[in-house]
């Protein structure tokens, strides 16, 4: 009897030891995750396409990993009157983590009404679903889109556009993640870009999709004579408040502003009116590209390692960050592993 008990005990000890060893291995994996602010494992290449979509010919700027594989698809919506190609650094950084990023050029126009822009962006998404595989095959048959994993990212007014897309689609096209980079919903409460997203009531905007909000403190500040580019009332803070969990909030504490998500070079001219850095924006686009890639890895990629790094090690980001906030947790039921090179 006692011999059996001993034996059984040592079997249990062995099992316990194996579980311990496995969990040590697992946490070793998580600890071994590299910084998302370094470039990802893929080199990337760019495609420039002009295509008829709905009633217009639209310029799509696409960045893909240079590798054989099936990759989740990210639609990127630019800010008000900004060129899609002005986000080269940010978008290339995201694509290097194994994502096909598609940035349509929206119609420039001064309209305060975003109704058309949202409709056009939804048309682009529908076009992507139906045609992107074929469009990419002209470049080579080995890069395939995984259309079961779609994510939306938008900057400034584009941030408002992607949340509106989520609201209007209401699950008719399944979206796995939505990210707003310094999203803006208009001028102030009551004077919102149509159709409004914000309700000014906590936990009321239910997208049933994991969301990330990245904000800048300088976005709500202004140079003399210019209004702020991301006014306090209708900026990232209110998006974070109104959205229903799971939602994460990263805020860039100082130095950088609303337009510092763009590249340096030509794009620098397009943002003199927004308060931001007077130096290079490289650190900001590396931060933004990194946190977006990390969140996408955690949501569509089933790999929380990079995002845990971003949350835990927020003091070692390339820009100074406030303590990240969150409501709820990311769901753990995503089932697709983004194939990373070294796995
Ligand atoms: C915005 O534009 C849409 C489409 O043209 C129109 O139906 C709507 O009435 C406009 N809204 C406002 C407040 O101007
Ligand atoms: C969204 O879809 C659900 C069913 O999936 C429906 O009950 C709800 O009314 C829809 N909401 C809107 C605003 O259309
Ligand atoms: C959000 O919407 C989903 C789907 O319609 C629903 O299941 C869920 O209960 C809603 N969440 C809240 C907090 O209202
Ligand atoms: C935080 O950074 C350190 C140093 O780079 C790293 O060893 C650690 O694993 C990181 N933490 C997380 C949760 O990734």
Automatic annotation (TrEMBL):
Q: Which domain of life is it from?
A: Eukaryota
- Renumbered to this chain, the signal peptide range is 1-30
Record has Iron as a keyword: no
Q: What keywords were assigned to this record? A: Signal
Q: Which SUPFAM superfamilies match?
A: alpha/beta-Hydrolases
Gene3D superfamilies in UniProt: alpha/beta hydrolase
Mind telling me what this protein is named?
Chlorophyllase
Q: Which organism is it from?
A: Sphagnum jensenii
